[in-house]
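Final paragraph of the annual report: two paired records, presented back to back.
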Amino acid sequence: MMKLTALLAAAAVTVLSLSAAQAGPTLDRIKASKSISLGYREASIPFSYLGADQKPIGFSLDLCESLVKRLEADLGEKITVNLVPVNSSNRIPLIQNGTIDIECGGTSSSKKRLEQVTFSVSTFASQPAWLTMAASGLKSTADMKGKTVVVTQGSNAVGIAQGISLKEGLGLNIVQAKDHAESFLMLASGRAAAFMEDDILLAGLKAQSRDPETLAFLSDQYPKTYYGLMFSKDDPAFKKTVDDVLAGLMASGEFTKTYDKWFVSPIPPKDMNLDFPMNEALKQRVAAPSDVVDY
C-alpha cells in the first residue's frame, strides 16, 4: 500500500508539471518531441531579423524565448529550439501544416487571418503607411495618381493598397514583391513611387538604409493594426499558455523593458535607434491584454 501511495504521489507531481503540455495538439507535439519550431523573419526589424552573424534576433524572438522557458518549466526538461525562416507568403501555410509551432515575427492579426490561424494577445500596435523618396515631391496619396507602387506579397498591405486605389480613384499600378527587402529595393531604385507597409517595419528599413534622410513618409493616416505571435487555429490550450506568458511579462514590467530594448535603444547590427516609443494603443493592451481586432 505504501509503495502504491508513493507511486500515485509521483504520478500526481508528474501530472501537475506536465498539465499544460497534455492539453492540446501543439503542446502534445512539443512534449513528445522535446522540441519546438519557431518561425522567424529575416528582415522584419526589430521584430525578427538577421543580426551581424546571420543569426535571427529581435523583439518577437525575445518574447518567444520567454515562452520556451515556461514550457521547459512545465515539462521539467530542456526543449530543443528549431529556428525556421518564413516569409509573408508561406508563414500561414507553415503553421497550418505543422512545420512551425509559432511564428515569432511581425505579423498583424485580422478577422480574415483569424479564419486560418490564431494570434496571441497583442504585442504591438501599428498602422499602414506609405514610404517614398524625399526627392519625389509626393506628400499624400492624392499625388500618386496612376503611379506604380509596391507592396510585399502576402502582406495585409496588398488589400489595403488596392482598397485605397479604388476608393480614391487613383488607378495605382500595384506591384507585389516577394519580401520587404525586394519591396524596398524597388522603391530605392525608382521602380516604384511608394512602398506601403506597417509604419514600424518601414521605419526599420528606413533607419538601416544608407541615407535615411533621402526617404520620407506620406502624410496619410490609417486605422491601427495589432500584431501578435501567430500559431495554429483551434488550439485553446496552447493559446492559453502563450497568452499567460505574455500577460505575465506585461504585468511584471518585463514586456515594457523588452520593448524599450528594441524600439527606443540602439539595436544591432548598426546600433541604430528606431526611436519608436510605445503608443497609447499598445499601452492600453499592456494594461489590459487583449487579442481583439476590428477588421
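The closing record of the year follows.
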Amino acid sequence: MKLVYCLRRLVSLSPQEFLDYWHTNHAPLVRERAATLRIRRYEQSHPVSSPVAEMAAVSRGAPEPFDGIASLWFDSADDFQAVGATPEGRRAARELLEDERRFIDLTRSPIWVVEDHRVV
C-alpha cells in the first residue's frame, strides 16, 4: 500500500524555507517513528526548476505545481490501519501532524492511498 501526499507550503514560508524544513526537520521525525508507524519506505520528491519542466507545464496548461510530494509505503492496508490501534502509534502520528502544521498548508494538500500499476 502506498500513501501519496501532495504538499503545498504555508504562505509564510518561501519555497526554499519549506524544502529546508521538510528535509532537515520533518524527515528525521518520520525516520525516528517509521517502525512505530509501520512505514516501510518514505520518499520526498522535491521540485526541480528547469526550462524543460516549465515547458512541459506550459504546454499542458498545468495549474500551480505542488511544493513537494511525500510517498510512504506500507506492507499492507492492515498495517497502516493497525497504527491507530496502539497508543504509541497514535502518539507518533499526532507528533508528525503537529510538525506538519508548522510548514504544510494542510487544507490545500491532498492526500490519498494509491495502487501502483507499472506500465514501462
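Strands lie at 2-7, 41-45, 68-73, 111-114. This concludes the annual technical report; the extension proposal builds directly on these records.
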